[in-house]
Amino acid sequence: MNIIVTGGAGFIGSAVVRHIIANTSHNVLNIDKLTYAGNLESLSSVSENSRYHFSHNDICNKSAMEEVFNDFKPDIIMHLAAESHVDRSITGSADFIETNIIGTYTLLEVARQYYMELSDHKKIIFRFHHISTDEVYGDLEEGTSNLFIETTAYNPSSPYSASKASSDHLVRAWYRTYGLPIVITNCSNNYGPYHFPEKLIPLTILNALKGKPLPIYGNGLQVRDWLYVEDHARALFLVASEAEIGETYNIGGHNELKNVDVVKGICNLLEELAPHKPDGVVNYIDLITYVKDRPGHDLRYAIDASKIHRELGWTPNEIFETGLRKTVQWYLDNQEWVENVETGEYQNWMQKQYQDNS
Ligand code: NAD
Ligand code: TYD
């Protein structure tokens, strides 16, 4: 098959591309605009492979997308391109509206035109797989055991999650109204190698190694359900290639943890894996700094992933303890990747974020 992966230079998209090239004989076309979050070095292990192709393009550019679809002739679209960071959506939402909503709309329209002209045989195979987030459901109460299921009502809190919720609605409307064969997945917080340093886990590892403060928003008691990125990539390919048309699957790691415990866990691992500390640091844990809370901060996310387990046989392989250890070790071993992605734009944004948050 020919598979388009949008956002394939990002954190999850690059794991999906690496997974497909390593485990199947399919061809992959990565469409990516290479924003601050996109980095082709995350694909260095596949870039020489003749089944991997790259198109440097914006998904909002309709004529470019039409050309790409007509040239590559995809059987499956796995749509991951997005603006993905909640804090950036709070300080500037325009790119989130543009890429996450207009970009998804553009791809749906291009895919619809393309699908209508396919042969009956090709139509049976074709899928538009939209990758979304559990943040569309809003949050769950702290201290309860409630979980998000596929039919939980949408109630997004941030500009990011509202833009993803909008795109999910568009995708379902294109299925119901036009018969475009779609599937949707909503997953919890991912972690693992190649995660952009602005997110909690890589930020904590990298700041600790530099002897910088480890910022915890509010009281740090918010809960996230952590999913190892390679488990997610495997689930996504399974859904794209085997799920029933029109279905939605929630994907989670069964790893509910408070933010403060995640940060302390990283500090403990670093004591063991990076014992030579920066000047002035006695214990990594002393770097923890409680800062102003995120506006609209969701308290708790937790996924019921029983549908994907029941229907497609997927279950996560990684438990948090082993996944976090691998992740910390990966950042210790890949400082060059880190230096490449920590561009001037990123440094400026982080500096401003710290000023506003302190
Ligand atoms: P990311 O920010 O690491 O990567 C996004 C990629 O999309 C980048 O390579 C970027 O260059 C590209 N991109 C952005 N705008 C584009 C545009 N207009 N045209 C083409 N490419 C563009 O994001 P991620 O963490 O890999 O997330 C991937 C998808 O998974 C997103 O749709 C996100 O909403 C969803 N998701 C992420 C998480 C998570 O924990 N990271 C959890 C649930 C869902
Ligand atoms: P993040 O990695 O930004 O993912 P998301 O907002 O999509 O869940 O944040 C994970 C959690 O960690 C979230 O509750 C916000 C919190 N957080 C901090 O406490 N400090 C930080 O510096 C960051 C980036 C996040």
Model description:
The chain is of the alpha/beta class and 358 residues long. The model has no long low-confidence stretch (mean pLDDT 97). It has a domain at 2-196 and 224-256 and 299-317: Rossmann fold, CATH 3.40.50. The chain contains 13 helices and 13 strands. The chain has a 7-stranded parallel sheet with strand order 3-2-1-4-5-6-11, with helices on both faces. A two-stranded parallel sheet has the order 7-10. Strands 8-13 form a two-stranded parallel ribbon. The longest helix is centred in the first third of the chain and has 23 residues, at 94-116. The protein starts with a strand and ends with a helix. It is globular. Helix 6 (159-178) links the parallel strand 5 and strand 6 (182-187). The structure holds nicotinamide-adenine-dinucleotide and thymidine-5'-diphosphate. The site of thymidine-5'-diphosphate has 12 residues, from helix 7 and strand 8.
Broad CATH class of the domain at 2-196 and 224-256 and 299-317: Alpha Beta
Query: Quick check: average pLDDT?
Result: 97
* Radius of gyration from CA coordinates: 20 Å
Specify the structural class: alpha/beta
And the CATH topology of the domain at 2-196 and 224-256 and 299-317? Rossmann fold
Share of helix, binned: 40-55%
CA-based shape: globular
Please specify the SSE layout and strand pairing.
Layout: E1 2-6, H1 11-23, E2 27-32, E3 52-56, H2 62-72, E4 76-79, H3 86-91, H4 94-116, H5 120-125, E5 127-133, H6 159-178, E6 182-187, E7 190-191, H7 200-210, E8 214-217, E9 223-225, E10 227-228, H8 229-242, E11 248-251, E12 256-258, H9 259-273, E13 288-291, H10 306-312, H11 320-333, H12 335-341, H13 344-357
Parallel strand pairs: 1-2, 1-4, 2-3, 4-5, 5-6, 6-11, 7-10, 8-13
Antiparallel strand pairs: 9-12
